[in-house]
Amino acid sequence: MRRKKILVSFYLLFSILLFSQSGNNEFRSTWVITWNWISPDDSMAETQDRIIDILDDHVGANMTSVLFQVRQSGTAYYNSSFEPWGYYSGYQDPGFDPLGFAVEQAHLRGLEFHAWFNVFACSSTQPGTPAYEHPEWVCRDRDGIPMSSYRALSPGLDDVRDYTKNVAMEIVNNYDIDGLHLDYIRWNEYTNSSMMDNIGPEEETRIIDGIISPELLNELENNRSGRYLYDIDHPYSAGVPGGFGSWEEWWRWSVTTFVDTLHDSIQAVKPFVRLSVAALGKYNWSGWQGYGTVYQDAALWFNEGYIEQLTPMHYHWTTADQFVGMLTDDCPECWEDHLQPGIGSGRLYSVGPGSYMLDNYNAWDNHASIINTCRTVPWVDGYQFFSSEQWDYHDYWGHAGDSFFTSRVKIRPLINNNGEAPEQPELILMEIDSLTYSLTITPSNITQNSWFAVYRSIDDSIDVSEDEIIHIQFDSTLFTILDEFNGLQDYNGQYSYSVTQMDRYWNESLPSIHSISDPIPSFPPTVIGTDPADNAIVNISGPLQIQFSKTMNVESVNNSSLIISPAVSSTMTWSDSNHLLTLYLSEDLDYNLEYSITLEPTITDIN
After folding, report:
1. Distance CA 144, CA 278 (A)
2. pLDDT, tens digit (0-9, with 9 covering 90-100), for 254-264
3. Which CATH superfamily is domain 426-516 in?
4. CATH 3.20.20, domain 27-306+383-402, yes or no
5. Predicted confidence (pLDDT) per residue in 482-534, tens digit
6. Pseudo-torsion of CA 456, 458, 463, 469, nearest 10°?
């Protein structure tokens, strides 16, 4: 292939970009599973560093919350008085309390912490686990034979419901969590088929909830008699439990009773703790679904107020059209038809894309279109992605924070929590130098922790619905933050600053009296990279790329202001928010000839 050398020289002027954020209420999170943050081979310091890295990644993506797994397989990843330490801590104390540490570190970063709690799936038979200590609690098939792998406790047993509620309430009482997130909140999906045999403890632990194989679904549909849907007190041979018209009615009642009772217990001690559930992605339609397959009536819980937030696992869908169809367009096979009372009561519903499924189907880039399309559904309050592991693999955090999650946001407050917004806090703005300001915030109430949102606007007033949030803080005392500019921002005027204070329900105060900065210097743009680089040998057919430090005025860049010498015609396209210019050559460059590209002073950024 013929290659050639190209010489590039540049001359520039400057201009401005106006930043804007559309909407300031949105739940954003990922599921963080145990094996992504703890390993028996890691030291205490290494585990703590990993937790910090995960939380920093969430901040970098401008997320609001983290769904952090703390109970799995009937084992604990915190100081539990009920259950032993889990498989991924080597069944031993890791030298610190991971839950306490993670809650503290999340709050230091302005993130909500939701304790992810696997409910009835209790496969571990380590000493101290419920399946070991109480084998009579394990689900049974029609012949009365208990599960021998993938063990699940029976929601139909009073002792199981009481025990599991007490395990959950120990977390609520002992830790300053913002939410309790229930997974495997349903009857199990297993049968007495041989495909369930010879499963190791790690394989059992690592099974992904939310979707099943076609083989297992076929087994569920064709081996009804082999389902583990009975228990020691409610054998199949005794018939439908008294007071119920069918087994299905009793199965759903037993899970609903647990959710309702746990919710009442939480409300009695910490009513601000949001109870959410990882419901199956399909409520009551087509094959693998919550209502008819595993007897999970998530819509009922949402409508009756047994939960504050519905967070389904929407792993079946990989395109924007499929998501909006599942939510609202494909009714009756949609969620909207079943949620109207809960939507009317203002409860939170957030969409759960399976990032691992998008990865598996080579649809990773669909994240943005899925998010932006779901934003058109008025009752959708945000997103939780499964899982952080795929986001790590794709190094997606920074991209998300620079694109579809462009600034920090708040959680929409629940309209039925009877909460009153705090009094407005005080703000003192101080110039340290022309590019740095300190903001000192004094809470209106220092007796309890609150959320704070720091706003910045180019207007002389603050709109808490639209103006940019530059910082979220969780605190109860006076604190100071810095707003530092690098001179590359696309605005060189004055900013208005204000702060609001929110209670644990996210009820928001009036903005503080706003403070105004001096004009902020914005330096001329520069070329920060080219492909090819200066004096590089390149393919004669291009393309050529120029990376600018600021958002450019694309109309100022044309064949008169960007000159290739000797002359070659080209087509220009822009990307990276008009920071990256790509030149597609209309003809091949001549072999063994030096070319230059000159940018004239008439080229500006967007002001």
Report:
1. 29
2. 999 999 999 99
3. Immunoglobulins (2.60.40.10)
4. yes
5. 999 999 988 889 999 999 999 999 999 999 999 999 999 988 889 999 998 88
6. -20
